[in-house]
Amino acid sequence: MHISEGILTLPQSVGWFAVATPFVWKSAQKMRVQSQNGTDRVFVGLVIALCFAVTLLPLPVPVVGATSHICGTPLFALLRGPVFMVFPTAIILFVQALFFSHGGLTSLGANIFTLGVIGPFTAVFLFEVLKRITRGFSMGFKGVEAASVFLSCFFADLAVYSADAGILGLALGKDSSFWKVTQAVLLGFAPVQLPLAILEGVVSFLLYNEIKKRNPLLISRRLGILFLLSVILSGSPIAHAGNFEGIDDSVMGVIARAYGKKPGPAWEWTSNEITLFVFSAGNFLAGWWAGWSWSVLWGKERRNDS
What we know:
about 300 residues, mainly alpha, Arp2/3 complex 21 kDa subunit ARPC3, 3-stranded mixed sheet, about 5% strand
């Protein structure tokens, strides 16, 4: 989901920004309305923090020897609508490109389109289709809904990376080689992303009913726990065991370099100490936000009980 700097041409970069901007604008307007309520505002903040963490958390696939990410945006799109996640995704990807060397600034529009538009809209579309198809099935509503959530988020995850492959095909391929590049990227993604798409589906249907059915104050605290756990794991030896290379570099980077591009971060930090400082500061600020949100919700719940 993180197309690096140096892959897209200037016209392509501008074009993807133009495609993504109307979605970001509409999402910002919707979020401003939804954030008027205090509980909703905290919930939105925790959703942003959790998606920020999971899209930074490198999940290793030992058999393949590479890491990748789950998306997170399809699940919350099912709960709040597909437009809801576009603006938060734009914020997340901008910060990751600027401070964490994930993605690029010139590729920001393309990354917003894949993670913030393709993923959420695919999930909601498939969910609605599956609801119509399974209406009247005898396995019970909860079972049908769980299967629908799983399949919707599973295919939405794959749709994000398929869109990445198509964008790389447009950026690197010329004439008939578009399909060659796209196919090469998809084949490179498949061994890593298929298992993680299954994981995305499982995590999504486990959280879906919890978030939808329970008290929003309790759920926000649980999201806070998940977020803090993701932040801790993102810098832990577990996430980096075996020094597995990220799929962004091992697939997109290799293919881009084969076609004469020089992908990389927006800029290189001058030392590992600076990188560590920025990463730690970002985690601290995000953790502070989660902690503050949690304290607000806890205080509000206690006042309601009294």
